[in-house]
Design brief:
The chain is mainly alpha-helical. The protein is about 85% helix and about 0% strand. The longest helix has about 45 residues.
Length: about 270
């Protein structure tokens, strides 16, 4: 039976992040388009916001529905949100998830920063780096925590990973570790590729360094979030994902400010 209450709840918790992120993304991309010039007038920003929010919410709704249909069949769950949706005691379900999610998310975030700043960032050209970090910082901390930590987990783990885990379990058998790890890895690769279009639109160059940054770092994060989702539930993945951004934010702001000082903005 389709759980309509859980469906509505998952959409509802994603909307704030969608609105904040759409506004930030359009502000950055709109500024780039205005500086680039052109004869075609831009649509009104309010119209773009409404259309973009509507499109993103539709994608969330599709992912939420897919997860409700496939997650239980794949052995995946969202006990905290299911309890919350049905008026049960949600914190009983949360207590077993939060300490592990915080610990693994924190350690994973530190490893992520070492990889990004020590390995990948020095290999990116300055124009790509400016576009990449400019868009990320333009979204702001609330967009990154609310959209990244909540909406992206509904899309990538609850919807995509659940569907893949169920599909892979059909030939490999229910409860197969191989099926679950395949789902984690494939959804992680798609998660990384899904970030590329907005960054390319912001001015990143499609170089091997850029592609490897998108794939490897997002896959690393997805291995952590996917494992937590599998072992503990959707809330654990969301907490770890949000923690990644909270740990990254002050370092990202500091490094982007240094980059701006090195490369003046074009007038």
């Amino acid at each position: 039976m389709f759980d309509g209450r859980l469906f509505a709840l998952l959409i509802g918790i994603c909307v704030p992040g969608i609105v904040v992120t759409v506004r930030g993304t359009l502000r950055v991309l709109g500024g780039l388009m205005e500086r680039a010039g052109g004869d075609r007038p831009l649509p009104r920003r309010s119209v773009l916001i409404v259309l973009s929010v509507g499109q993103s919410t539709l994608l969330i709704a599709i992912a939420a529905a897919i997860g409700i249909l496939t997650a239980p069949r794949a052995g995946l769950s969202a006990p905290f949100f299911r309890s919350l949706a049905h008026g049960a005691a949600p914190w009983a379900a949360a207590r077993g998830q939060l300490p592990t999610a915080a610990l693994i998310g924190g350690v994973g975030a530190v490893a992520f920063l070492i990889l990004y700043y020590g390995v990948f960032r020095p290999r990116l050209d300055r124009g790509t780096l400016r576009a990449l970090e400019g868009l990320r910082n333009g979204i702001g901390i609330w967009g990154r925590v609310l959209y990244g930590g909540i909406a992206e987990e509904v899309l990538s783990r609850w919807g995509l990973m659940s569907a893949l885990a169920w599909l892979f379990s059909l030939p490999l058998g229910e409860g197969s570790y191989t099926a679950m790890w395949l789902a984690i890895v494939v959804s992680g690769i798609l998660f990384g590729l899904g970030h590329a279009p907005s960054y390319l639109a912001a001015g990143c160059r499609r170089t091997p360094a850029f592609v490897s940054t998108m794939l490897v770092l997002n896959l690393w994060a997805s291995l952590i979030f996917g494992w937590l989702f599998w072992q503990y539930g959707l809330l654990a993945a969301m907490v770890a994902h949000a923690l990644f951004h909270l740990v990254w934010w002050p370092v990202d702001r500091w490094q982007y400010a240094k980059l701006q000082a090195e490369i003046p903005s074009p007038d």
